[in-house]
Amino acid sequence: MLCSTHSFRAGVQTLAAVPRVGARPLFLRKDLIVSTLQTDIERRLAQSEPDVEVLLAEVLGGRCLRVYIDHPDGVTLALCERVSGLLSSERERYSLEVSSPGSERPLTKPAHFRRFVGRRARVRTRHPRPAAASGQRSAGARAVRSFTGELVGASEEEVTLAADGGIIAIPYAEIRRSNLVGE
User: Is 103 exposed, middle or buried (0-12, 13-18, 19+ CB in 10 A)?
Assistant: First the structure.
């Protein structure tokens, strides 16, 4: 993981509400972005670093803000440091980590899923879903929250995986977290 050398926790307490991990939906509907915090970060970076894509911005334990970024030319330590410098207001509230996506890249938007159709991914859902391929809960079918398999499709409404239990379509609004799985 690449982290900025500017990462620190300022001794300033704020009155801002800090979301817990998993406290709000990662996916809302269609093209809505992950969270207000991520939307704000994307907007500010678009002005100074227009080629940087924010893949995921998540608050961990109420104190650490982890921001995964990507760039067409790759993510370097220098780029992570520049992005960290542009997020000075976040550095006042959180311990800031700016990182490349790595091999287990987060998938947070329909376009991410479409880009990686054919690759293996892990999708964790908000609620247990039947593991059976038909999507119907039978007497012996167990419900699970985690599915790993090949991405076979991605529309504006749902992602489709060829998982161990068969083909499963999962609406984006039901996804808690997802990422590519190393081959």
Answer: exposed
